């Protein structure tokens, strides 16, 4: 697992949450949807890292 990749995923998730909140507060549905998409992207990034970790453990 790359700690750097995990940090990128966390940053993407936070960015998405902020963007979703701003969209919610301003009534901008596009902004809100983009924020949710970033959060989903972060979740996928974390899942990929989890798979990498498990594969490495199996190999070692």
TrEMBL record:
InterPro entries, A to Z: CsbD (IPR008462), YjbJ_sf (IPR036629)
Matching SUPFAM superfamilies: Hypothetical protein YjbJ
Signal peptide from the UniProt entry: none
Gene3D superfamilies the UniProt entry points to: YjbJ
Span of domain CsbD-like: 5-57
Stretch list, region Disordered: 22-41
Biased composition (Basic and acidic residues): 27-41
Sequence similarity: Belongs to the UPF0337 (CsbD) family.
Protein name per the record: CsbD family protein
């Amino acid at each position: 697992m790359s700690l750097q990749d995990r940090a990128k995923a966390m940053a993407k998730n936070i960015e998405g949450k902020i963007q979703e909140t701003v969209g919610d507060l301003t009534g901008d549905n596009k902004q809100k949807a983009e924020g949710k998409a970033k959060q989903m992207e972060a979740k996928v990034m974390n899942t990929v890292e989890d798979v990498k970790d498990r594969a490495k453990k199996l190999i070692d």
